[in-house]
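Handout, page 2. Input:
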Amino acid sequence: MNKLTHFFATTIIATSALSVSALVNAEEMTNRDKAVAVISSIETGDQSAISFINPEKYIQHNLAVGDGLAGFGEVLKQLPEGSAKANVIRTIQDGDYVALHTEYNFFGPKAGFDIFRFEDGLIVEHWDNLQEVAKPNPSGRTQFDGTTEITDIDKTDANKTLVSDFVQTILIKGDMTKISHFIGDKDSDYIQHNTAVADGLSGLSAALKSLAEAEMPMVYATNHLIIGEGNFVLSVSEGTFMNQHVAFYDLFRVDNGKIVEHWDTIEVIPPKSEWKNDNGKFGFE
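Output:
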């Protein structure tokens, strides 16, 4: 049993208060720092990371995990010792939300997005979306490579509006006549990290056409959340892919008023009879 698993197994249910030293440490860190520490602790076993979660209010939206800290602890106990890895690559901090883009080995190699909601400096809610790691896509890109630097903080609101309009106009309504408002015409204008799609509008169009011809169109039905920081904007949507009910997490990089890069994960939403909590996959405020 690794250190973090032992810590959860022996103390998590009984924990109802945080130590003074933990509170002091928490006050010196940003919410971004705390979120990264929690995810990194899955690999490192850093027991102090638990102090960044409010044990009385922690709401879990991963439907394969029981609610609260006890549910998280049960999952960790099932991990083969030494198998877990969590390399946080990109972060977004937007108000009370922090989103992380992470390369995982969590019951196998996975690409994941985690979203944490904070109250009074502590994590009170968690959402995620995981997808198995695949080989490089037709343009030779992986689910993780590409730009990581946050820039254009002063353009955060404008970039969030752009992505929100893109999701509603292109992904939900399917009005492809307006695609040039959001993405440049040259293949080099749009860098794609989706596992099955090549760069540029030509790659996107070919992929969507192939799905439609196979009678398995990608359908975005509802957008639940748009958060962003500078040039990075994360969209959380619900819809259908490969004739299955799914959650779409799409991370976009924006430059000079255009979407120039895209990463994503698509996760199947299980039937309610299989849920281990009653909080739902979405439920953002």
